[in-house]
Design a protein that fits this description.
- It is globular and about 75 Å long.
- It is 44% helix and 19% strand.
- The longest helix is centred in the middle third of the chain and has 35 residues.
- The strands form 4 sheets. The protein has a 5-stranded parallel β-sheet, with helices on both faces. Strands 7-8-9-11-10 form a 5-stranded mixed β-sheet, sandwiched between helices. A 5-stranded mixed β-barrel has the order 14-16-17-19-18.
Length: 579
């Protein structure tokens, strides 16, 4: 589907003024202005964001009650069980809080549910088991639980003390627990509501450290822990694709330094198998495309506990063994993912009657429930429709994962179809669902009917916003290094995007990478040649080859460091033939 390109207005006088006051290049000044920083003070605050810009944890709703209860449990030597989620955010949140409580000499363990057998969120059978093993234990959820109303009620009936920390979308009814920690609790006004589960866990660890210090400040030992813990919080933040602005940007900015300079044994081993060990500095992309997928593979294939063990072990040999195993799991995940994507496309082709639906709901008995979320994202992008993929089981039940497109509120869409599902949760952009096989068709039609009334995407919902039009000769190593000051890049703070016009192909396009999924081209403009790569866009190769005239390329500039040499390349986002 063709996407509209929207250029941010070019105001030469404002660019000159900001560039002069901050001593930055016009290119960087233009990008800052496009991001809303038009005066030197606000731009300097963005460029020089500090760890001290993080809000005091006491401001986070529910955290004081939670920290008090946890510290009381530490001092009375009660067992504390961290109940985490199986994705990267949940795994890093679990590991972070576990490290904190271990340093506090707490009696602490963790429980990670199996994705395939127990599903997302708190599980009644698990809570029953934890209570039977130790009725006096304290259970602290991380990255889950805010929608577990019935499960929290069971815990209360059992007399099991439960603290819920989460960041997901709030339901109309909140669970009744000893404490609820959430940045957007009703009736509260926390300054930044977009923390992920690991970010919330980091704030909770900080509050615990304060209480075990002098009440205001953590001890020197625990302050050092908190500095290193920012690295784990950064991994969860990038992996969960929360907005990389405000506190999240600060966490990732300083977490990337920690990961490179002071990472745990497990993260160092994971960096080695990911090929990152020789990089002088890490970028958010290194988390998103190298570290996070390997951690995620364990949870997606039902072995998330191994990922937590990797991030908490103090044994170098065990760390290396686990990192290698997670690397193999990730390779297996990619193979499964490619097969599911092929089958999903075939299903759409076999059902032309779905063409009029604004949403897609696809189901298959051969699909792996741990991988369908990634594929749902690919299908949504390919067909330009919010998509739910469902893995059907032999017992007639199904576990689904959905991804939005063009700002459709997937959570609200599923809420409108609650009569057709046995459970759902998540947020606007991504959600999980449980449904019986007999109700898949009803869910498909119900979601399509809801979208027909409530989903009217415009060019603005799918447009590609462009910071400026540039010449390839302007995209130098020095210029890209300057642009990196605006990072780390991610959701709501994307890499700067530019357009270069009247570009010609220097040689035929070629596909590359595992399964020939990616595209590589070499282009020329006014004597400057440059390489461009489009990940997962091999299908563009024949289209580019067939182009008869010059091209306009929509791209993000990056520096490719290889064997000690730095070279500017383009990450190709979109392209079109020039008129």
């Amino acid at each position: 589907m063709a996407r509209k390109w929207t250029f941010f207005p070019h105001d030469a006088s404002v660019i000159r003024r900001l560039g002069s006051e901050l001593r930055i290049s016009p290119m960087v000044a233009q990008v800052l202005i496009a991001r809303g920083y038009r005066d030197a003070a606000s731009a300097r605050g963005f460029l020089e964001a500090k760890l001290s810009d993080l809000h005091d944890p006491s401001l986070l709703p529910g955290i004081n009650e939670a920290a008090d209860r946890i510290v009381a449990a530490v001092r009375s030597r009660r067992r504390i069980t961290i109940y985490g989620d199986y994705d990267v955010d949940g795994v890093t949140a679990t590991s972070l809080l576990w490290h904190c409580l271990q340093l506090c000499q707490a009696n602490v363990d963790y429980y990670i549910p199996c994705r395939m057998e127990e599903g997302y969120g708190l599980n009644k059978a698990a809570l029953q088991q934890l209570h039977e093993e130790d009725p006096q234990r304290l259970v602290v959820s991380v990255d889950c639980g805010i929608a577990s109303v019935a499960e929290a009620e069971l815990a209360a009936d059992l007399g099991l003390e439960l603290i819920i920390t989460d960041h997901h979308t709030l339901s109309e009814v909140l669970p009744k627990a000893a404490a609820l920690v959430h940045p957007r609790l009703p009736g509260t006004d926390y300054p930044f509501g977009e923390l992920c589960g690991a970010g919330v866990a980091f704030k909770l660890a900080w509050a615990i450290c304060q209480r075990l210090g002098d009440g205001k400040r953590a001890s020197p030992r625990m302050r050092e822990f908190l500095k290193s813990a920012v690295g784990l919080a950064a991994v969860g933040t990038v992996a969960d694709v929360v907005p990389l602005v405000g506190e999240n940007r600060v966490i990732v900015r300083y977490g990337l330094q920690t990961l490179r300079e002071n990472a745990s044994l497990g993260l160092r081993a994971l960096a080695q198998v990911s090929g990152l060990q020789d990089k002088a500095e890490y970028r958010a992309d290194d988390i998103g495309f190298s570290l996070a997928p390997r951690i995620n593979a364990a949870g997606r294939l039902g072995q998330a506990r191994l990922a937590v063990e990797l991030l908490t072990t103090e044994n170098p040999e065990r760390a290396q063994m686990l990192a290698t195993y997670l690397d193999e799991l990730n390779k297996n995940r990619k193979t499964v993912e490619r097969r599911i994507l092929k089958q999903a496309k075939e299903l759409v082709e076999q059902h032309p009657e779905w063409a009029d639906h604004k949403t897609l709901v696809l189901a298959h008995h051969e699909w792996h429930p741990g991988v369908i979320g990634i594929v749902a994202n690919r299908v949504a992008e390919e067909f330009g429709k919010p998509t739910v993929l469902i893995a059907l089981k032999s017992d007639g039940t199904g576990q689904g994962s959905g991804r939005s497109w063009a700002n459709f509120d997937l959570y609200e869409g599923l809420a409108a179809c609650r009569e057709f599902v046995t459970g759902f949760g998540g947020h606007k952009a991504a959600a999980g669902v449980r449904v019986t096989a007999s109700m898949v068709e009803s869910l498909r039609n119900g979601l399509a009917n809801y979208a027909a009334i409530h989903f009217h995407p415009t060019d603005q919902d799918t447009e590609l916003q462009i910071d400026a039009e540039v010449l390839l000769s302007e995209v130098t190593t020095r210029a890209v290094r300057e642009l990196e000051q605006l990072g780390p890049f991610g959701q709501l703070n994307p890499q700067p995007r530019f357009v270069a016009s009247r570009v010609t192909l220097e040689e035929p396009p070629r596909t590359m990478g595992e399964g020939d999924r990616h595209l590589s081209i070499k282009v020329r403009q006014h004597g400057t040649t440059m390489r461009a790569v489009a990940f997962g866009r091999a299908e563009w190769a024949p289209l580019l080859q067939a182009a008869t005239g010059p091209l306009s390329l929509n791209f993000a500039p990056v520096i490719n460091s290889f064997r000690g040499f730095d070279k500017v390349e383009m990450q190709l986002i979109d392209w079109r033939e020039d008129a």
